[in-house]
Amino acid sequence: MTALTAEVGNTHLHIVVADITTLDVDAIVNAANSALRGGGGVDGAIHRAAGPELLEECRTLGGCDTGSAKITRGYRLKARHVIHAVGPVWHGGTQNEEALLASCYRTALDLAAAHRLTSIAFPAISTGVYRFPPDLAARIAVGTVASEVAAQPRGMAAVTFCCFSEESAEHHKEAFAELGLV
Ligand code: APR
Fold first, then answer.
1. Burial of 98 (0-12, 13-18, 19+ CB in 10 A)
2. I want to staple 85 with a disulfide (CB 3.0 to 4.6 A). Which of 9, 34, 104, 110 is the partner?
3. Active-site position among 19, 24, 26, 43
4. 1, 13, 2, 10: which is closest to 180 by C-alpha?
């Protein structure tokens, strides 16, 4: 169920409340850790739904830096690919967390474009176990994606902000409004 849609250039930006493992898109983004060995939260849900082959492929990647991302196949998911992004742990905003979170979104969009993918869905990276304030995270997520697709369209037809609660969706809707997207 789409909660809200906006357009930036040729790209549709959607906010939905859903389990990201159910989405039929070219790539879903995982909120991973730097070891890329699976975990709880959305990471656990994605690995459970994709099956053990996903962990096998992740083991070959040599981990991933915070603020960066790596791509794998989607295996048993409807999504053809998983982009594993490593968000920052929130330390009160003193350790470059905002820039690192923005970098996750940019890197994921770049990887998707490099693989000629046209639809991507993001969870609210870092807002669970990593404790990033969800309103600020939503502003960074929406602001980064909107400015990136405006500056460099990358052929992306649809970007979905996949929220796991109505509260999270509200934060993203407020960010759309603040940016004048709706
Ligand atoms: N679909 C969409 N969103 C989900 C799902 C799901 N199935 N499950 C959880 N979420 C949401 C959470 O509600 C939260 O808003 O994803 C957001 C990110 O939460 P976490 O999964 O805890 O991710 P993060 O805060 O980035 O912490 C990453 O957690 O599981 C470990 O291996 C992972 O160490 C890494 C850390």
1. middle
2. 104
3. 43
4. 13
Q: Which two tokens stand for residue 144?
A: 């980064």
| Pocket lining: 26 vs ligand 1, CB cutoff 6 Å | no
Q: Indicate if 43 belongs to the active site.
A: yes
Please give the single-letter amino acid code of residue 80: R
State what percent of residues in the chain have pLDDT above 70: 99
pLDDT digits (tens, 9 = 90+) for 78-117: 999 999 999 999 999 999 999 999 999 999 999 999 999 9
On whether the CB atoms of residues 148 and 178 are closer than 8 A, the answer is no
The model's pTM: 0.98
The whole-angstrom separation of Cα 148 and Cα 154 is 9
Q: Which residue has its alpha carbon closest to ligand 1 atom 24?
A: 126
Amino acid (one-letter) located at 100: L
> Is 56 near ligand 1, meaning CB less than 6 Å away?
no
